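Design a sequence for this backbone.
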């Protein structure tokens, strides 16, 4: 209902604008489609503070350790993730959930931990430091900050190809899958458990390096400045 009600005013504003900002990826395609290509699009992603990249050690956990960060709502894909955990549970992995997940939406296994909502960055960083792979199986997103945070701490990422996620997640930095595909999520989960240490280290290293080179706020400020200057010159 919210999407339906906001679609018309959003389309009106986009079509009246000279320029529209986009986080990139499929979001740029949506804006371009809604404006019939008549509005210039400035692609300016979000970034992360430099301190998130400090003192990162690319350790491999065995059993593998996975992380989900977010609140419970249908579009986050937690139900799909719960199905995968229940189907594949054998005690050969750990899973940390950070966020306000209701009791009735939790799975009951000894190696699955629910930390609740955490607002202190140092506590989130501590949990991420123990992880190998972040799972973000959402049906829709923009450019999730949790992916930036996890990659900055050297985690590979399993995420769905929605919003601007494909700017961050690829076969080099993790696994990019289609949203709502239970079978594919199950297959990818198994691959995360069984992937070789060297291959997983390569993905973790590539994830950390991508954020370091392109997604700190220092770099994003340069991108914003250049985008605005180019628009003005035109």
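Sequence:
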């Amino acid at each position: 209902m919210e999407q339906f009600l906001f679609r018309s005013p959003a389309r009106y504003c986009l079509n009246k604008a000279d320029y529209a900002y986009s986080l990139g990826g499929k979001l740029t395609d949506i804006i371009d489609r809604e404006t019939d290509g008549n509005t210039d699009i400035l692609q300016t992603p979000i970034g992360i503070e430099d301190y998130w990249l400090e003192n990162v050690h690319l350790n491999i956990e065995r059993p593998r350790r996975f992380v989900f960060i977010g609140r419970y709502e249908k579009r986050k894909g937690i139900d799909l993730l719960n199905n995968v955990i229940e189907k594949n549970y054998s005690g050969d992995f750990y899973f940390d959930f950070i966020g306000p997940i209701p009791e009735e939406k939790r799975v009951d296994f000894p190696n699955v931990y629910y930390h609740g909502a955490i607002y202190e960055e140092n506590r989130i960083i501590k949990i991420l430091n123990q992880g190998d792979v972040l799972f973000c199986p959402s049906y829709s997103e923009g450019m999730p900050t949790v992916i930036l945070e996890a990659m900055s701490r050297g985690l590979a990422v399993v995420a769905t190809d929605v919003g601007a996620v494909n700017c961050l997640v690829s076969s080099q930095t993790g696994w990019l899958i289609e949203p709502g595909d239970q079978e594919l999520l199950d297959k990818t989960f198994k691959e995360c458990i069984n992937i070789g240490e060297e291959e997983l280290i390569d993905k973790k290293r590539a994830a950390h390096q991508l954020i370091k080179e392109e997604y700190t706020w220092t770099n994003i400020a340069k991108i914003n400045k250049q985008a605005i200057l180019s628009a003005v010159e035109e």
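The chain is about 45% helix and 15% strand.
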